[in-house]
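Handoff note, outgoing to incoming analyst
You'll be picking up this chain. Sequence as last confirmed:
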Amino acid sequence: MKKPCSIVIAEDHTILREGLKSILSSHPDLKVVGEAGDGLEAIRCVRNHSPDMILLDLSMPRMTGLYAIKEIKRVSPQPRSSCSLSTRLRNTSLQQGDRRPSLYQC
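Most recent structure output, in case you need it:
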């Protein structure tokens, strides 16, 4: 039996991070080994878990995904796959009185 692909998810929107984890965890060949809410946490997760793949939001607090990628390559130069995520919340629904922002780009 082959070893599952290990994944770190770095995303500051908790609901999106949990959703990605739920979807990925349902696949037997994938294993989420770490989660991060910002770029600094992402670097720590990569150091601690040496994942095969990183799903990384480009826009996060404390350190953006772009800076985190540079630092991850410096501290962990082994080849790995990465996927960058970019999310934005649409404010138009908030202006119309709806208190639930909607995700429109991912």
